[in-house]
Recover the amino acids of this structure.
């Protein structure tokens, strides 16, 4: 479903957090086309979550430009939030509310109400197999249910672009498989997906294109197959990743 119309265009993006000595992002250039399943890989502290937060208009930048379609993220946050769905790295749900109540809350944040909201929640409960758990409080749910609800909350408004920051941390093989099937179907139906993960086999399986980021710079990009083919002696993306980013611990 990819086409050549850009969904996200990032040019010479630099970001320095207040109080830090160095830039966290040191000049990122990236184009993600509509319909892509795009993977951003990188060691801890590479800058993945920072990049995602900027794309979503949640953080200010120091230099460069980030366009969603034709809109500048820094200027038109409201419009951007209608187009983008964010599934954050940390579970961002209200622990004392139920699965369904969390979905209602996030739907209302996107100005979805009444029958439309009820139908959308029913659809997501069914697709993510959360029906049986709909009335459980989040603080009584397993990791897999929390992750699936986090996903449902991020895409309650059927965004054109879905951004997932390590969405499968702490889930079992069954939940992970369900999430994969769901995301693959969504992508086939036309949703652009931006995905970060530390599970390199996930990226190899799911992503049509990948960028590897390290210390705030994109150090490599291409299809999983082209990256494995390009680096001699590498049999999978895990090998490529270690070859490019090295074995030293980051933090
Ligand atoms: N609010 C902040 N203030 C100062 N420094 C920050 C802040 N948030 C992140 N950083 C720093 O920016 C760098 C990049 O962090 P970021 O969370 O973007 O990395 P990441 O690639 O998502 O890592 P991980 O794989 O661990 O999630 C790190 O060195 C981190 O300590
Ligand atoms: Mg992160």
């Amino acid at each position: 479903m990819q086409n050549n119309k850009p969904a996200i265009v990032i040019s010479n993006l630099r970001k320095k957090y207040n109080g830090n000595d160095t830039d966290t992002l040191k000049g990122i250039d990236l184009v993600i086309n509509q319909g892509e399943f795009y993977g951003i890989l990188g060691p801890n502290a590479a800058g993945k979550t920072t990049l995602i937060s900027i794309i979503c208009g949640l953080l200010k930048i120091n230099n460069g430009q980030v366009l969603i379609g034709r809109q500048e993220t820094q200027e038109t946050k409201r419009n951007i939030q209608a187009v983008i769905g964010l599934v954050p790295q940390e579970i961002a749900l209200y622990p004392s509310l139920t699965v369904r109540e969390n979905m209602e809350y996030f739907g209302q944040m996107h100005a979805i109400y009444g029958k439309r909201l009820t139908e959308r929640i029913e659809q997501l409960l069914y697709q993510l197999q959360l029906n049986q758990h709909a009335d459980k409080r989040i603080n009584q749910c397993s990791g897999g249910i929390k992750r699936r609800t986090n996903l449902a909350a991020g895409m309650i408004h059927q965004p054109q672009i879905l951004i997932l920051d390590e969405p499968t941390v702490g889930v079992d093989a069954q939940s992970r498989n369900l999430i994969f099937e769901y995301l693959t179907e969504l992508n086939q139906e036309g949703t652009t997906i931006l995905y970060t993960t530390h599970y390199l086999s996930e990226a190899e399986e799911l992503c049509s294109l990948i960028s590897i980021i390290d210390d705030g710079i994109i150090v490599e990009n291409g299809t999983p197959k082209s990256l494995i083919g390009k680096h001699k002696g590498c049999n999978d993306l895990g090998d490529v990743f270690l070859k490019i980013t090295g074995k030293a611990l980051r933090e």
Remarks:
- The beta strands are 6-15, 25-33, 37-41, 63-68, 71-72, 84-87, 161-165, 192-196, 209-214, 217-222.
- Residues 48-49, 89, 165 surround magnesium ion (ligand 2) (CB under 6 Å).
